Automatic annotation (TrEMBL):
Keyword Transmembrane recorded: yes
Transmembrane portions of the chain: 12-36
Protein name: TNase-like domain-containing protein
PANTHER family for the chain: EBNA2 BINDING PROTEIN P100, SERINE_THREONINE-PROTEIN KINASE 31
Entries under InterPro entries matching the protein: SNase_OB-fold_sf (IPR035437), Staphylococal_nuclease_OB-fold (IPR016071)
One of the Pfam families matching this protein, by short name: SNase
Source taxonomy: Bacteria, Pseudomonadati, Pseudomonadota, Gammaproteobacteria, Oceanospirillales
Keywords: Endonuclease, Hydrolase, Membrane, Nuclease, Transmembrane, Transmembrane helix
Residue span, TNase-like domain: 44-172
MF annotations from Gene Ontology: endonuclease activity; hydrolase activity
Length: 278
């Protein structure tokens, strides 16, 4: 074999290797893409006109309804003499930008919250989930309610990607240790060890005590029902470290009586709101 023939064979081999590598990459990408559920509109929806943005997860409609996004919580903007939380103003600004191309959006109403706001999944007119677009930018946290959520798996994947990429709220670890951190009321993601699980007969709740001043409250009516909360699964968490999220409430006033309570309480309404760390 002359040198020119050797070069020709080498070039052919190189092209074969490159082509094989290209197809392997494309195939891998296809598998990855197909495994991620698209955050797009599913089923029937209502077309509405939005009026103005209240914050990153709340807006007013022209018909007077106040819409609270059902599956996401964004950082707070300044209100009631409280300073804005980090990225609160940005979340609000990005929502305005997402809505800027059209006065219309689509919504799927799921109920009302205790403030009387309409809980809904919002979508751009093209069907893209607004909740998903905010979560993938790291501008909000996923919420887990007791109701079935057709977008839960998709939003969980989006949040995992934002968390892995340290985008937005994940740029600094927002998870607070129940023992070491100074806790404040509001939406929080916490971590700690479960030390006790109890279900008093006269209480409508199952209680999970943590190794700090925090107790988790789970409504008994949600256990082994539509919320997919399994009793045995909860009891088996004793001695394990978990991550959980929700609205933290200060019970300091209750401790002024004879009975002592752990100061902080947080409600969990879906098993997806608890993640095992061990």
């Amino acid at each position: 074999m002359v040198f020119s023939d050797f070069i020709g064979c080498t070039k052919k081999a190189f092209h074969v290797v490159v082509s094989a590598f290209f197809y392997i990459c494309m195939f891998s990408f296809a598998l990855t893409a197909s495994a991620i559920e698209p955050c797009g509109l599913k089923g029937a929806s209502e077309t509405v006109k939005w009026d103005f943005v209240a914050d990153g997860d709340t807006l007013w409609l022209k018909d007077g309804r106040k819409i609270r996004f059902a599956s996401i919580n964004t950082p707070e903007i300044a209100h009631e003499q409280k300073a804005a939380e980090p990225l609160g103003d940005k979340a609000s600004l990005v929502l305005k930008q997402l809505l800027s191309d059209s006065q219309k959006i689509r919504i799927q109403v799921v109920g009302k919250d205790h403030y009387g706001r309409v809980l809904a999944h919002p979508f751009l007119m093209g069907g893209q989930s607004i909740e998903s677009l905010l979560i993938e930018k790291g501008l909000g946290y996923q919420l887990f309610s007791e109701d079935s959520d057709p977008y839960r798996n998709c939003l969980t994947l989006q949040e995992a990607e934002a968390r892995k990429g340290k985008r937005g709220v994940w740029s600094k670890n927002p998870v607070l240790d129940v023992r070491a951190d100074r806790l404040k009321p509001g939406f929080r993601i916490l971590s700690g060890k479960v030390v006790k699980v109890s279900s008093p007969k006269k209480s409508g709740f199952l209680w999970m005590e943590m190794d700090g001043p925090v107790v988790i409250r789970v409504p008994k009516s949600f256990i082994d029902t539509k919320s997919f909360i399994d009793t045995e699964w909860l009891r088996n968490l004793v001695g394990q470290r978990i991550e959980f999220r929700g609205w933290l409430v200060d019970r300091r006033e209750k401790n002024k009586g004879g009975q002592r309570y752990k100061r902080w309480i947080i409600g969990i309404y879906s098993q997806d709101g608890i993640r095992k760390l061990d």
